[in-house]
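A quick word before the example. In earlier lectures we treated sequence and structure as two separate objects. From today on, think of them as two lines of the same record. Here is Amino acid transporter written that way.
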Amino acid sequence: MTVALAPAVPEKGLRGGALGMVSSMVIGMSSTAPAYSIAATLGLIVLAGTGFKAAAFVLLSFVPVLFVAVAFRELNTAEPDCGTNFTWAARAFGAHAGWFTGWVVTVAQLLVMSSQSALTGRYTLLLFGASGAAGNRWVTTAIGAAWLLALCWLCYRGIEVSARAQWILLGVELVVLVLFSVVALVRVFDGTAGPQASVPRLDWLWPGGVGAGTAVSAVLLAVFIYWGWESSLSVNEESADPRHAPGRAAVLSTVLLVLNYLLVTVAALAFAGVGTEGIGLGNEANSDDVLAGLGGAVFGDGAGGKLLGVLLIVSVLTSGAATSQATIMPAARTTLSMASHGALPRVFGRVHPKYRTPSVATWAFGLVSLAVYVLLALVSDNVLSDSVDAVGLTIAIEYTMTALACVWVFRRTLFASVRNFVLRGLLPFVGGVFFLAVLVFALVEYAKPDAGETTVFGIGGVAVIGVVSIVLGVPLMFAVHRACRDFFAGRRLPRGVVRRDGDVIEPV
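And the structure line, produced from the sequence above:
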């Protein structure tokens, strides 16, 4: 079979060899916001009707995420491009599908930046004891905006500086989470946790006895706490081993995340129980942030306990800051890749000659994120909340497209070996179909009038915001079509070619 080679894409100018596998893994884990993700989601999973089985759904939701992570790894081995989803979807399904996938990923990153900016603004005030000001929308928005701009500047200054900051922020976050979990479990086992506590049991990890409706709701909630690990791959061109290290880092990130989430989940369930009063995780008053509600109870009211309670607030604050920073990096690199391949105007492909970072793309994403955040925050807290929930729809599309792209790109060699069949075919296909089903169920659930905080013409605001944000990509794609004719004609990033050192290895 003869396949024409694509014209070589010029070097993007990023700093190659700057990151090791561990640094890539740290970036991937940081992007998920482990502390905040579990704090803001665990109570909702319990309220869905799972009770102590919430731990089972945290574990169960990890499986399809792992399958998708394998697809990312395999595609990166073939073509380590910092555009990741955009590049691979274009290779598999054509230029229009690739551009639209890049847009969907960018929408997810823009919406999640609003969430994390609001979080850092609020928790900065809580750290200094200004709980009253933490409820003031204007004050929290201003501080959140300042955090966003500072983190953009950090990402602009260089990948090494960004990676070092990620090490510190993630380190603080994980140490405090482990400390919280250990203290909570020790108090449960020594009988000082209180009458609401329960000794952990193995059957908490099995979802048996939970109704189908409850199970679907729990999975929809739990599956998205893992989103972000793919940031490991967005820095692949800056890795010391671009083809292999980022993919391994992504898979290891998901494994470490599930271990961390299970430890915190089991500790919180055991200590607080699932009751509907007091510190119980079934109490709706605690659902927004279960760790904040448990900090004082677990650590006590003494001087040491108060210090550890402050550290728990610090862990959520660093979680939000680390996630914001780890969101800016992949967003800028997706834009850089799209411009390098001719899918966006050339100006977005500029790289700073000294810092070797996507200069225009970083600040463009930061300023657009700032505008979206301020607009959503000042319009309504309810709209901001529903916008965050709408991220789930974009994540489902992103994972579906990438997993199925893996199957399609490698389809001619799937039966060449058992490894190819399992890792490039079976697991990605199952993961892709799972997230396609999640997308459908999420649309149905989010469209219900009582699903979120707002409604539009009787339809849930989460579904409206998500669908409108995604569909907005269609007119934008046509708007850049004339300036990017070579790309959309398939001449810049042709379908059916994957390159390895200039050679075609997988004709599609």
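Notice the following. Confidence is low (pLDDT under 50) at residues 1-9, 501-505. We will return to this example when we discuss secondary structure assignment.
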